Amino acid sequence: MRRIHLVYLLTLLTLLTLLTIGMAVTLPLMAQEISMQKSSTTLSAGSAGSGLQPAWMKDSMAKMERELVAKYGDGQRARAERGLRQVSEFWRVEDGDAAGFEDFARANFAGDQAALDTMFERYQRLLEQLDGHMHEISREFNQQSDLDLGPVLPFDEVFAGYDPSAHVIDDFFQNKLAFTVLLNFPLATLDESLKDGGAWSRRQWAEVRLAQRFGKRIPADVNLAIAQAGAEAAQYISEYNIWMYHLLDAQGQRLFPPKMRLLNHWNLRDEIKADYTDKENGLAKQRMIEQVMERIVTQTIPEVVINNPGVDWNPTTNEVKAAAAKDADPAAEKAGAKIGNAREPDTRYAVLLKDFTVSRRADPYSPTAPTLIDRRFNEDREIPEARLKAMLEQILTSPLVARTARLIELRLGRPLEPFDVWYNGFRPGSEYTEAKLDEMVAKKYPTAAAYQKDIPNLLVKLGFSPERAQYVANNIIVDPARGSGHAMGSGMRSEKAHLRTRVEKTGMNYKGYNIAVHEMGHNVEQTFSLNDNDYTLLQGVPNTAFTEALAFVFQGHDLELLGLPAPDAKAQAEKTLNDFWATYEIAGVALVDTAVWHWMYDHPEATPAQLNEATVQISKDIWNRYYAPVFHKKDVVLLGIYSHMIDSFLYLPDYPIGHMIAFQIEEQMKKAGAIGPEFERMAKMGRVTPDLWMVHATGRPVGPEALLEATERALATAK
Ligand SMILES: [Zn+2]
Predict the structure, then answer these.
(1) What pLDDT shows up at residue 15?
(2) Coil/strand/helix, residue 252
(3) Ligand 1 centre from 2 Cα, in Å?
(4) Which chain residues have CB less than 5 Å from ligand 1, an ion?
(5) What dihedral angle (degrees, nearest 10) is formed by the CA atoms of 675, 679, 680, 686?
């Protein structure tokens, strides 16, 4: 896990609202949102903001282009034309009249290289200060809730929920600092970045990133509505529990223990994974959970069974009765609910439709990426949808899938069933028990300070020179976390990265240590990609999958850092097969998520019932194409079960990308030998496009080849 950088927050506005405001918005805002939705209907006309442009704009642009060229020479024509066009795409009536626009352009166009250099340097320095200090405020405001510092008081939660940078983009358009950037620096589309980015200088890349910060101007009420929809969707998901003791099989038996309450989909899926070790009832339980999931996707689940221990339910026949046995506090039961099998009335899809409806409201204000699909693929991921789809198909249609499936069948001693997409029997194993590891770790790290002190040694073991190890260690502060742990980079070079890790009274345990090593990987990446980058505007990595992949490199060596032997070839093969099978599973889920968003854009007037029908059909189609040949069963809808699809706005494709990237980086580390210098070389590249970063790091663009090659080798080893 990693805290999102402020620099991302400023560029990825939708993500900002989703991840930060989204968590903090509470229900009293609902009334406000309803009134905002009414007023939004006037904004749907036109695309790329053109419908919002004042009528005089065209004439003023032409006039100013002539004037700027006359003043600075014909060499500036292309820049002037582009800059004026970029400003015009975001200029609204309230920003000023024709004379105001013309005065602004006259005063703020940097007409020669020296003026442009001054502007660039000053923006870079001041935005670093802004990002850094805003981030510092956020970190301090979150201190009490993030760290193990005693009780969290009600006002602490308000501090933690407050985002001091929430209005920065609005302010920068209002005071025209954003327009100055748009007038002078190129706002590149993904197509341009991919086509020309390889030839751009580092400075050109930094200019592009500078302009992109102001590449959309989404009104505050639209952002708030998106955040609100995200919060409501998260709320819907967070209360979607199944009370497992109340599931009955054909004989009326209860397969699951009392009080077991599983959240869809994470807990249900994890229970399927856990049931592989239950030799007696495991298979029956797994089949029953599959049935429950199918009923959720198709919305044939009786509404009254959701989050209600007051009824018993047979998911096969769909029969519902008052609970014949009690296992929960009566307060947990749905009071007054009518007992029967009236289905959930497409609520799952009504929530998803609302995500879509509010996301669309941002479209007219995002000229270079006018749909949420564009924003996710072209801006957040910077991997075109068609390329990602091709990569996923390469995995899904690989002959390695059938070979891995045969190995699973061999181990299970039965043919695959659909829920085996979540098979988790590939396990590295370890000669040390967790208790033994706990003991070793607690002795070595009784406090957070002990871990802090050891960081230079750990980094030397990972291949960093003693000087570089000390340099990085000096930039990391270890804090005792309240939760499981996270890494928090800084937004400016004068600040340090923070490693938050959990330390029990009895010292650190193995789980905490394993996480700390992962977070340390983030901190090292954060330090190099900010402090050792030639431009702070390029700080970071292309997207979150990259920082996770780098952190996993560290985490994968945690045993060696404890002085224990590295995992052997057999253990590595098991890990690879586990990752490959998980990628195969999530690749289909990502295709479903993407196809469903396309369907919504193609059918903007759809009802929840129609979206239900479409999602079920899409899930079946993708299953039939890529899974039915392996599982020998058609028309399965399980790929539609992920909760992220409902509350995370097209986030799921990030997972398969993450797996592919992790393998590419790992393979390169193996080739290079020592991790340290290679890690530093990669991390210093900063936030260019994923392909450019990966070519620099490994010689190849982002792709599934490394994963497939490793799987091929693993299959030979794992027999
Ligand atoms: Zn992480």
Answers:
(1) 33
(2) coil
(3) 5
(4) 1-2, 548, 551
(5) 180
